[in-house]
Amino acid sequence: MGQVLIEFDQPIKTPYTVIVSPSRSPDAPMLSCNYGNVLPGSFEVVLFNPVAQLSYQTVRNGSFSFVVIQ
Question: What is the 8-class DSSP label of residue 41?
């Protein structure tokens, strides 16, 4: 599991939506992500494994992409 805080240079004063997408790799095939804690100046992205497997316990090789839509 991993968590990333995205902070904007300038706060966004109008409502916005975030689309996040995990970048899966052979050793992180089940990687998923979601966003939350949306504030005018930041939001959080959470990377996680939706299925508990002993062979896959970290997101060490996972990443994500995002886009902010106003």
Answer: T
Tens of pLDDT, residue by residue, the chain (70 residues)? 688 999 999 999 999 999 999 988 777 777 889 999 999 999 999 988 777 666 655 556 678 899 999 8
Residues whose CB is less than 8 angstroms from the CB of residue 23 and which lie 6 or more positions away in sequence, other chains included: 31, 62, 63, 64, 65
Domain boundaries, the chain: 2-52
pTM of the model: 0.79
User: By three-state DSSP, how is residue 18 classified?
Assistant: strand
CB-based contact 60:45 (threshold 8 Å): no
The Cα 39–Cα 15 span in angstroms is 9
